[in-house]
Design a protein that fits this description.
heterodimer, A: about 350 residues, alpha+beta, Rossmann fold, OB fold (Dihydrolipoamide Acetyltransferase, E2P), 2 domains, 6-stranded mixed sheet, 10 helices, B: about 270 residues, mainly alpha, MetI-like fold, about 0% strand
Chain lengths: ~350, ~270
């Protein structure tokens, strides 16, 4: 029998208006599992139930094969970090970080050494005597993560830990989380809205909606083979179309979207959704010859700048979105009204039924 | 140069009414303060009767305020954090004394505790405990009337503290009680202190319920408001005004303190 680090077995919970029933999830030791889903999907409640804050109505939670369903949170050895840090405002940074260790009753000397060491790792040594409200968002979240890591939890639960931060701090802290995971080998469950987190961090992705898990798998599976248009939409699959799929004698399927035709490989026919990730498009300023089955020519109608990357929107009979670096936009001389060719492979088209 | 616009008619009317209200308030309080000559006032303030009333009021109000705190913290906390059957009805019942005239509360308490009218009173007197018309009655009346206020303030204080602080504390090894004691209570400190100040000031001034349950017995159950009432009825205006002035000063100070603590706790832990 394979033993999982964390096993959630037909869990049901009822909390006021919210409920989920018969939820199953298995997380391997050392896995970085990202939980994705819209607001109200029950992600936070799931994490809080794993932490022991809410008692389930039915089902079991196993940690290392041990039933912890009715174990109080303080005896589970599971760490929790929230989006809005939840640093204790009446304690200094040092007292916050060392809170758990103090609860365990370690000696003062040991306590100081441990707090100083972890503060150094997180680059917050100079903040130890300050109070949380004087800290920046990134500093606060570093403190919160350090606080939960000091106890070396067997599982770390992160509830949108990067969402309240500005872009640069978010990227930096994301890298730090990656390093932490690599160095500690800790099992991590991480709720997020950003699909960049998936690419950067996850070994596995769980998509939740209305209190159920709608898909789980490797990041590649989720990002490239979403089982529904909801998931495609949610994971940033921007080019989403609805059309009629017709099998051609050559074995290629043609999806007719108005007058446009997208070629793909699929077994589905009839009314379907098709999605192409913006990053799977090749952009060129002249016709692009390749083995790729799909090429569209159109006019650039919008350029959306988001940091290093920019999205360009092209009117080509259908509206297509592609993503490229700001540098390539300059190199190719793309501006509003430019004529561009967008090319993508038949296998880059993800088809799912309605 | 910035040209100041004249207020519109509507603005002028609203501001005008506010000014009139302020002027009336000042006039009324000044009238009270200036009624007696300073010499008479000093004599009254140092009279045995007023000293007795001050002492009795302060002691009973301190005791009743502490009792209110002991009641309010668990009640308010459970109303904010826990779900239980009949919570809405508990809420209504808890708020009832807020809109009930204290006189009615006093009569109800009198009937409930008097040996002549209730089994509870009979039981207490069989144990040798007589509550009605004693200083204990003053405390009971103050608690009965003021506890709901303290519950309300404690409740709004607790509801401003996210339960997630406790959740994090629990995952860091705190028990349920520990998380409450080490995290929520210190975070609620200023709000609770503000509540204590207001509750104490209200207890100092409580009249209706005290009158009913403790009676107006000179030099026995004579709190400051009772002293005011007794001296007014016997026509001793200077003594009555001395008592009134002390109550005025207490209310003003309490209000300032409450505002101070209220502001302190409001912005930090939302």
């Amino acid at each position: 029998m394979v033993m999982f680090m964390l096993e959630i077995d037909s869990l049901s919970i009822q909390l006021g208006e919210f409920s989920f029933t018969d939820l199953n999830l298995k997380v391997n030791d050392g896995e970085y599992c990202i939980i994705l889903g819209p607001t109200g999907a029950g992600k936070t409640i799931l994490l809080e139930t794993i932490a022991g804050i809410h008692s389930p109505k039915n089902g079991r939670i196993l940690l290392n094969g041990k039933d912890i369903t009715h174990t109080p949170p303080e005896q589970r050895g599971i760490g929790m970090v929230y989006q809005d840090y939840m640093l204790f405002p009446h304690m200094t940074v040092a007292e916050n970080i060392g809170f758990g260790l103090k609860e365990r009753g370690v000696s003062k000397k040991e306590w100081h050494a441990a707090v100083r060491e972890i503060a150094k790792t997180f680059g917050i040594s100079h903040l130890l005597e300050r109070y949380p409200k004087t800290l920046s968002g990134g500093e606060q979240q570093r403190t919160a993560i350090a606080r939960s890591l000091l106890l070396r939890p067997s599982v770390l639960l992160l509830d949108e830990p990067l969402s309240a931060l500005d872009t640069i701090t978010r990227e930096r802290l994301r890298d730090e989380l990656k390093v932490i995971h690599k160095e500690t080998g800790m099992t991590i469950l991480h709720i997020t809205h950003h699909f960049e987190d998936i690419y950067a961090l996850a070994n596995r992705v769980v998509v939740m909606r209305n209190g159920t898990i709608v898909q789980e798998g490797t990041p590649d599976m989720i990002m490239h083979h979403p089982v529904s248009d909801f998931i495609a939409n949610f994971t940033g699959m921007e080019n989403l179309f609805t059309g009629d799929a017709v099998m051609t004698p050559s074995g290629i399927v043609e999806i007719h979207i108005g007058t446009a035709i997208i070629r793909t490989v699929t077994e589905l026919t009839g009314r379907v959704h098709a999605g192409i990730r913006p990053e799977d498009m090749i952009i060129s300023t002249e016709p692009f010859t390749s083995s790729a089955q799909n090429s569209f020519v159109g006019i650039v109608t919008d350029i959306i700048d988001s940091g290093v990357y920019s999205k360009i929107v092209v009117e080509a009979g259908i509206i297509l979105t592609a993503v490229l670096t700001r540098q390539s936009i300059q190199r190719l001389g793309i501006t509003f009204g430019s004529t561009v060719w967008l090319t993508f492979k038949a296998t880059s088209v993800h088809v799912f039924s309605e | 140069m910035i040209k100041r616009r004249l207020p519109t008619f509507f603005q002028a009317v609203c501001i005008g009414i506010s000014l009139i209200v302020v002027l009336v308030l000042i006039a009324v309080f000044l009238g009270l303060i200036l009624f007696s000559s300073p010499e008479t006032l000093v004599v009254c303030l140092f009279s045995e009767e007023i000293w007795y009333a001050i002492r009795l009021s302060v002691i009973t109000a301190v005791i009743s305020t502490l009792l209110c705190l002991i009641i309010a913290v668990p009640v308010a906390y459970s109303m904010v954090r826990f779900e239980f059957f009949g919570k809405q009805w508990v809420n209504v019942l808890l708020n009832l004394p807020l809109s009930l005239p204290p006189l009615v509360a006093g009569v109800a308490l009198l009937i409930f505790l008097s040996p002549a009218t209730s089994p509870v009173g009979q039981f207490l007197s069989s144990m040798g405990i007589y509550v009605v018309y004693t200083s204990a009655a003053i405390v009971i009346a103050q608690v009965f009337v003021n506890a709901p206020y303290m519950v309300r303030i404690a409740r709004s204080t607790f509801s401003m503290i996210s339960p997630r602080y406790e959740h994090v504390a629990r995952t860091l090894g705190c028990s349920e009680v520990g998380a409450f004691r080490k995290i929520t209570l210190p975070m609620a400190k200023n709000g609770l202190i503000g509540g204590l100040v207001i509750t104490w000031s209200k207890a100092m001034g409580e009249f209706g319920a005290v009158l009913m349950l403790a009676g107006a017995i000179s030099m026995k159950t004579e709190t400051l408001p009772i002293a005011l009432f007794l001296n007014m009825s016997t026509g001793d205006l200077d003594m009555a005004i001395a008592a009134a002035l002390i109550l005025l000063i207490i209310s003003g100070t309490a209000l300032i303190l409450f505002e101070y603590f209220g502001k302190e706790h409001g912005d930090v832990y939302a």
